[in-house]
Prior knowledge:
Elements: E1 2-4, H1 6-12, E2 18-21, H2 24-33, H3 35-40, E3 42-45, H4 48-56, H5 71-92, E4 98-99, E5 102-103, H6 104-107, H7 109-132, E6 139-144, H8 158-170, E7 174-179, E8 211-214, H9 222-231, E9 235-240, E10 260-262, H10 274-288, H11 296-299, H12 305-332, E11 337-341, H13 346-357, E12 362-365, E13 384-387, H14 390-399, E14 404-407, E15 416-420, H15 427-435, E16 440-445, E17 450-451, E18 454-455, H16 459-470, E19 480-485, H17 496-502, H18 506-510, H19 517-523, E20 526-530, H20 537-542, E21 547-550, H21 564-567, H22 576-585, H23 587-604, H24 615-648, E22 686-697, E23 702-713, E24 716-717, E25 720-725, E26 728-734, H25 740-746, E27 755-761, E28 771-776, E29 782-784, E30 802-804
Parallel strand pairs: 1-7, 2-3, 2-6, 6-7, 8-9, 8-11, 9-10, 11-12, 12-13, 13-14, 16-19, 16-20, 20-21
Antiparallel strand pairs: 4-5, 15-22, 17-18, 22-23, 22-30, 23-24, 23-27, 25-26, 25-28, 28-29
Amino acid sequence: xxxxxxxxxxxxxxxxxxxxxxxxxxxxxxxxxxxxxxxxxxxxxxxxxxxxxxxxxxxxxxxxxxxxxxxxxxxxxxxxxxxxxxxxxxxxxxxxxxxxxxxxxxxxxxxxxxxxxxxxxxxxxxxxxxxxxxxxxxxxxxxxxxxxxxxxxxxxxxxxxxxxxxxxxxxxxxxxxxxxxxxxxxxxxxxxxxxxxxxxxxxxxxxxxxxxxxxxxxxxxxxxxxxxxxxxxxxxxxxxxxxxxxxxxxxxxxxxxxxxxxxxxxxxxxxxxxxxxxxxxxxxxxxxxxxxxxxxxxxxxxxxxxxxxxxxxxxxxxxxxxxxxxxxxxxxxxxxxxxxxxxxxxxxxxxxxxxxxxxxxxxxxxxxxxxxxxxxxxxxxxxxxxxxxxxxxxxxxxxxxxxxxxxxxxxxxxxxxxxxxxxxxxxxxxxxxxxxxxxxxxxxxxxxxxxxxxxxxxxxxxxxxxxxxxxxxxxxxxxxxxxxxxxxxxxxxxxxxxxxxxxxxxxxxxxxxxxxxxxxxxxxxxxxxxxxxxxxxxxxxxxxxxxxxxxxxxxxxxxxxxxxxxxxxxxxxxxxxxxxxxxxxxxxxxxxxxxxxxxxxxxxxxxxxxxxxxxxxxxxxxxxxxxxxxxxxxxxxxxxxxxxxxxxxxxxxxxxxxxxxxxxxxxxxxxxxxxxxxxxxxxxxxxxxxxxxxxxxxxxxxxxxxxxxxxxxxxxxxxxxxxxxxxxxxxxxxxxxxxxxxxxxxxxxxxxxxxxxxxxxxxxxxxxxxxxxxxxxxxxxxxxxxxxxxxxxxxxxxxxxxxxxxx
Length: 807
């Protein structure tokens, strides 16, 4: 295996060579290195994202790998092999590592599951591709310097390591193209600036209510939980997440916002003994791994040493530090209840283990409207769970039969309504409405069909089903329009795949890219899903739009798994339009389906106790009651004895201090760390951008801002986006969404990834007039991304519409 740099690649690569690409970002990077070299080489995609990126370049030598995927093996490994192996691989070698009674390997099982599943899939697929290309002189693969490990499901160099191993084992020449800044499709999450919180430890106070701990990272409906805590007068403790960010309460008066604790995996104050032990464990793993039960592509692959080094000596070290910090906190801060997400976060997993061991009940709240698959959950039993529907309650009970599930109905919603642009200024919506005039609109609503290159349904069968849907019967072609709403963000497929493999016209697959989901539903006369359902089905049913589901191939996950008689499930692709046509044109049939779906939705979201006025509050009271009664009894004795001592001596009662740091009982307020509007340094570069859409949650607590921002000279997307409301920094994020319309309109392909989609807390009394969006360039200078003013003839959302001149 040789290593080459970009300059060497341009000279030595030829038409007899091939390069593996795992995502569209690598395709674009290769094209930018040298257009001539890119045109010569054969492109071997390893994911749908890479395949779409390659097709978009019109490269003549792109290999369609989909037929080589062994989906049956993936499904077996997803459900049976790797869930067990990810928990037991270290123990299989007779090794273990525990900190405060927590087994680090079992704690890390969700991340290890993704690593094992991804590596095995890539190894199997790469071997078939290499064997089929027996005339290729040399295979190339991207790799970073330094190497990037795989943490959960984000970009890494694990793919390159597996391909190097496969080529070496098959005796085929290969080279690694090393880049200092590897092209990233989906960067690892980091805490947004607004969520870097100064931790404040609140002192003990008289028992007005239960003391609740909450790990809000990845939680859906977290603002409703905050409101419930305040209404119940709960003394809430918020545990921030250094990786996933931490949503804060909207109200500055909330008790939650004044009681925040932030852990840090970089805090080495309690791990003097841990580092050497983990390094010794890593050495022992190296000696014993050859006899482990791991797949050969992992077990015998020396190129994956960097990944195991990271897991054992860095990730587990971070876990150990977190455990030490949390263990001390649990002793100092007893709780009546701890609430965490069902989606794995290190803070949630560690705290739930330690608090439950201390006798505190643990409650799980969902990360979305549907429970996460068991492979992605924290590997711990929970005492209670909150479910928003009866179907999700049944799924939770299947995952953990010991959990008491509380169905609280539709109390928690995360549905957004468009508040900008004004409808008459919404050019994309107006254009699509005019193009489908007098036609019935069938909306194909898609979900992610792969995660980090691993397909969760058979992609061949998937696109064949979409092709059957695209084959509108001759008698309906003048009466029906088919539009595709792909999943937004990095998990969604490139729309060009639907054009290439399903025969959908370009406008059908790309026309909705600039619309919000509410506008898409407004257009639809019928919604159709294929093979992999989405939790957005609940929003379709809530909006009383007829829903039809096509299940023509197995999927490793069904979320939500709704009854076939409710969603009109079809398993035969030939019957697709026989089912859809009556929904569109038979008014009696349509009305009956809508009524059946409406009744199902209302029944599903009816609280467990139908007479309960506040089911969420009742569920929290129920979960807290046993521990609260015990704590009240103990507290009564403790405070009674203290008062008797104080009054018997004639002394004033002693003020309780914070046991963590000795501060006075006054709450230490949190402070959101973010740039101040007056401190922004404006750029002198020529910039462009546009805010395409602002949507607000129905409870008025959260907004979604979507648009694009870039510098035209030199061509570069804004590095970060900052959102200000009434001159207060409310959050931000990176640009990463592809905007081919922007690149085409500006003639600058370097700003393709200038799109952004941000979800931030609106703050109290949000008003659109107080909203300001700023883009920040790599040099730290900023520019405003304006919202077009409401005026006659304005065009909303058109690339290049808003440009700023040098300051």
